[in-house]
């Protein structure tokens, strides 16, 4: 089971007040003054009529420091002890926010993952949530009007009782899963940007904040390199249909601004053909020349890579002209490039190829939009526009709601800007 938040039985005594989960990232809780600002946001929502559970990250930079300490203590450390160490950052901020809320006259208490409990599988360091029992939190909403301040990023492995963490950026997943478990009307993710943009505004100054994004689009954007949410949190939001609102924690709590709502496709009235342009520099290309053109060759190449946990993304096999051999090009994450080449060299006698070449100075640029399902020729327009700029396409992949092209990294900005204008995404 994967991150299935399940409160078990239906929560008793359906409260009159709607429930809200509010999640604050590391920069939003970086010091006591910012934690006070977080508390003001929380107080506003309580006054607006919500019962609130807050999920907090560690203070910014804290988790990196804790991770580094584990590595310094021993490069090959026990993953369970790593989790005991790195989960501590969130324990600190959950307690601090509860103190600050109490100081403002708001009833509040902190919760560690094991106290709720948030139960996980045993994959220490990147565990998945299996269930959340939200009943005590909900009971305290109605009996004491008490805000639950939950440490993000952590849970407990059921069988062993050990603390487990959910992978970097995992507080997003804690928040969305908790929202599903307590039947929250919405999950608000407060962060250091004010929403999801059509593309990275640092690359394209004309990028716009999107009002709404469909779950599926957000899943593609997050997987393709948009860093605003942990990919797994979007999966959980999509499966449990939790409307998730990305917004800025630096707003004046008295005058909150709009963000981006991630919601079901049905709730988006006018779907654009293309909603966003993503890019990832984390790609490398490998080409095998003169591979035998016979059954079983693709398996001989890709099974050893899969066994080594290397994710192959784009694959191109050239039609052979001699009927005997062919070229195969594919991409792997750049972090796995050396390992992938070593594996292929080792398997060269079973695969049979003339040479292996590769490139790491490549980038994958993708266009995403649910409107692609109902429009033909969306990718074709991109190929034309890129060629007019003299940009060579090394590989292409398409799916129902996205297409990606692999190009030379030097053309990243030009390609992203070209596609952003082509699909009418530039700010008016
Ligand atoms: N503190 C954890 C991290 O830095 C979890 C999170 O912030 O979401 O990865
Ligand atoms: Mg984050």
Q: Would you kindly provide a written description of the structure presented here, covering whatever features stand out?
A:
The protein has 428 residues and is an alpha/beta fold. Helices cover 32% and strands 25% of the residues. The chain has 13 helices and 18 strands. It binds aspartic acid and magnesium ion. The site of aspartic acid has 13 residues, from helix 6.
CATH 2nd-level architecture of the largest domain: 3-Layer(aba) Sandwich
Sheet having the most strands:
8 strands, mixed
CATH topology of the largest domain: Carbamate kinase
Mean pLDDT over all positions = 93
- Gyration radius over CA: 24 Å
Small molecules in complex: aspartic acid, magnesium ion
Q: Any idea what the shape is?
A: globular
Distance between the termini: 45 Å
In total, how many domains does the architecture comprise? 2
Strand order of the largest sheet: 3-6-2-1-9-11-12-10
Which strand-content bin applies to the residues? 25-35%
Oligomeric composition of the shown chains: single chain
Low-pLDDT regions:
4-13
- The total count of strands amounts to 18
Bin the helical content.
Answer: 25-40%
């Amino acid at each position: 089971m994967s991150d299935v938040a399940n409160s078990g039985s239906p929560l008793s005594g359906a409260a009159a007040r709607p429930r809200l989960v509010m999640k604050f990232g590391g920069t939003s809780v970086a010091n006591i003054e910012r934690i006070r600002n977080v508390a003001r946001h929380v107080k506003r929502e309580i006054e607006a009529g919500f019962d609130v559970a807050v999920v907090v990250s560690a203070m910014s930079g804290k988790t990196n420091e804790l991770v580094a300490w584990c590595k310094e203590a021993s490069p090959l450390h026990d993953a369970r002890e790593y989790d005991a160490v790195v989960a501590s950052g969130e324990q600190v901020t959950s307690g601090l926010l509860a103190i600050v809320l109490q100081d403002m006259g708001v009833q509040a208490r902190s919760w560690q993952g094991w106290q709720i409990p948030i139960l996980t599988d045993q994959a220490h360091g990147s565990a998945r949530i299996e269930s959340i029992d939200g009943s005590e939190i909900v009971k305290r909403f109605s009996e004491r009007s008490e805000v639950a301040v939950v440490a993000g990023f952590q849970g407990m492995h059921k069988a062993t009782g050990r603390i487990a963490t959910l992978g970097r950026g995992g507080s997003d997943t804690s928040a969305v899963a908790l929202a599903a478990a307590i039947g929250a009307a919405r999950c608000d993710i407060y962060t250091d940007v004010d929403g999801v943009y059509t593309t990275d505004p640092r690359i394209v100054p004309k990028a716009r904040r999107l009002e709404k994004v469909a779950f599926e689009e957000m899943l593609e954007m997050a997987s393709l390199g948009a860093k605003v949410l942990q990919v797994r949190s979007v999966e959980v939001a999509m499966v449990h249909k939790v409307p998730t609102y990305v917004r800025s924690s630096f707003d004046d709590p008295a005058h909150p601004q709009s963000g981006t709502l991630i919601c079901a496709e049905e709730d988006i009235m006018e779907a654009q053909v293309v909603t966003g342009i993503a890019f990832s520099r984390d790609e490398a290309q490998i080409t095998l020349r003169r591979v035998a053109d016979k059954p079983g060759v693709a398996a001989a190449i890709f099974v050893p890579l899969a066994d080594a946990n290397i994710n192959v993304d784009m694959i191109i096999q050239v039609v052979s002209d001699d009927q005997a051999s062919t070229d195969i090009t594919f991409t792997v994450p750049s972090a796995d490039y050396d390992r992938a080449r070593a594996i292929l060299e080792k398997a060269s006698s079973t695969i049979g190829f003339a040479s292996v070449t590769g490139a790491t100075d490549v980038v994958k640029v993708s266009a995403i939009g649910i409107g692609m399902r109902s429009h033909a020729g969306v990718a074709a327009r991109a190929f034309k526009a890129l060629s007019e700029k003299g940009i060579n396409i090394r590989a292409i992949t398409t799916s129902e709601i996205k297409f990606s092209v692999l190009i030379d990294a030097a053309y990243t900005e030009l390609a992203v800007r070209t596609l952003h204008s082509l699909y009418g995404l530039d700010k008016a």
